[in-house]
Amino acid sequence: QVHLVESSLVQPGGSLTLACVLSGTIRNVIEMGWYRQVPPNQREMVATITERRDTSYANSVKSRFTISRNAANDTVLLQMDTLKPEDTATYYCHAKVQVSFDRIYENWGQGTQVTVSS
What we know:
The chain is mainly beta. The chain has strands at residues 7-10, 16-21, 28-37, 44-50, 55-57, 65-69, 75-80, 89-100, 103-108, 112-116. Helices cover 0% and strands 54% of the residues.
């Protein structure tokens, strides 16, 4: 079969911003973040941000990537600067949300391919 894979192509040293919008009936957004995966490796955390704006970054992207959320806590951005070929991966938006007093779901976006190459 023939498969088409869409990708954001960025030169090494370049920048790219990924955006993710959360919607639905949500009681509380506990955490949002970005993860990336290069098969056959496992999906790894890139950056996360809590509703309190506490952030965490993977050591490999710290000082280069910046995660942020809007005031409504329904949009998360990942600003990627000084991109390296090692950053090439499929990036997935992730949200840990509380939909009721005792129900917490983890949701994933469909993923977007980012290719860093000259």
